[in-house]
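Appendix B: complex inputs.
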Amino acid sequence: MTPLPQKIAVIGAGDIGCGWAALCAAAGWPVTLFDASSRSMERAAIDVPRRARALVALGHATEGMVERGLLELHQGRSLLQTVQGADWVIEAIHEDLGAKQKLFHAIEEVAAPEALVTSSSSGIPPTELFSRCRRQDRCLVAHPLNPPQLIPLVELVPGARTAVASVTRAQEYLRALGRMPIVLKKPVPGYVVGRIAAAVWRECIDLVLTDVIAVDDLDRAVSLGPALGWAAAGPHLTYHLAAGDGGVNAFLQHLLASFEGWWGQLATWQRLEPEQQRALTHEVERAYKGKVEELREARDRRLSAILRALEQTRTT
Amino acid sequence: MTPLPQKIAVIGAGDIGCGWAALCAAAGWPVTLFDASSRSMERAAIDVPRRARALVALGHATEGMVERGLLELHQGRSLLQTVQGADWVIEAIHEDLGAKQKLFHAIEEVAAPEALVTSSSSGIPPTELFSRCRRQDRCLVAHPLNPPQLIPLVELVPGARTAVASVTRAQEYLRALGRMPIVLKKPVPGYVVGRIAAAVWRECIDLVLTDVIAVDDLDRAVSLGPALGWAAAGPHLTYHLAAGDGGVNAFLQHLLASFEGWWGQLATWQRLEPEQQRALTHEVERAYKGKVEELREARDRRLSAILRALEQTRTT
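Resulting structure:
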């Protein structure tokens, strides 16, 4: 069993970086957070404790720890000072391959020899991300979903040169944080979640732009429909359980013909042209105009309620 | 406001028909259920009360109503006797266009002039389903998800000749049953849910058959990852809320390039060849062998817990 980390370095103080920082600090792990933008750092000083409080409310962190100053959250003064002495360096900057490659190169210069280095990239293969690192054995992707402190899944994507021990260590850290790490057997662009999300989003955009359904009706249809089933079981298991005792084989016999008919009809475009972007933006803004804050709060309440319900289910 | 129906006829006593019957009977509506197979009818006599009890447990039906004999569930002796005098005729037989067309033709012969007629088809356009009916004004698709008594969404798909009043009436019946009816603006094969599910499933099959991820890891990745987000907000709203105050427009600026890269790489095959069907069946059975009953119960517990949590969120 790997000892727990004594210092976490989080580079990038956007939504993903603040989520990682809140998750680790709420677990009592000392976190140093760094962002080249002082505005992002100022925002993070408010945002990370806010996220930590949400974890307390969920019962995932010690009651009152934020108020009693138990959150060990430090503002890094430089990349060097942030990364130095860290057991785990978490990259969480914007999704730009060149910027990430440069950052990993700089991290390597200053990181302790035993540091674990993970990228929060949502889809770039690790071999590209870490191409400028000499020590790729300790590097891998640990892709969280948004918000990272709430959604349990973290995709672990090792590269060809990642050491098995580094994958194991990342799994142990993540499990200690209450996460569910899933290891991909091989890296593909978009990993697993990005590809599935891309398949969903393309069809959802197409259904709106071809005027089959309104934006808010589509969102309701997914969230009160198939998403509930997938949250309860996952797609393969859903179909394995859908045809009685015959399992997925019986399901294929009954419904493959329908699916094959639909597969031939799904959207296949690969670019969203500027006029389509404008049309989509127009439809989404029209559906949700003036209600964004209210919808964000409702989303957060729903997500927290679902997570709490699922945790109670696991323990009963 | 349409008066509530005094008699519901459900034709087909499989999973979907039993779900409809339980939902209506648990609401106190008299239901007559008919299936040409006596074996299905025998199973339904046990299955419908079991589903109704689950609705009682969720607080959706009167405590003890099953035990006190308050479930008005009748076994139809023939199609004629089942449909005669019904305000609402629900077709829920297997997904076979010819069989459904023939059934709707037979229903039309015996249904009361004012009866509403709905099909539970999961993707066939209404114009095809009702092509042999003279009175298409009262016919539309009302597609529930599995299990119909639990998942709130019902897709309403009117055909070109469906009367607006029939759509309104279906919405009123469904809302009275605690359902969330969503009306499509025009019919497409697979409707909305089937197309999105088809996009998801193709990619999920592909990720397993190309050995990127194991079946159970993929299911966990979806259910503990994106499905939670979609259950809380739906795809368009998720992305509208994901990029801070900039909304979907800012999201497109940051992440469209990633999505476009993935769209170009997603699975595009339209048939699942026999050897792929065998490979998929093999992988799914290997992942879940000997655990199906346990997994079904866990799925049902998770789904009930999520639904209860979401209902409490709505009322707070």
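Strands of chain B lie at 8-11, 31-34, 73-75, 88-91, 116-119, 139-144, 153-158, 180-183.
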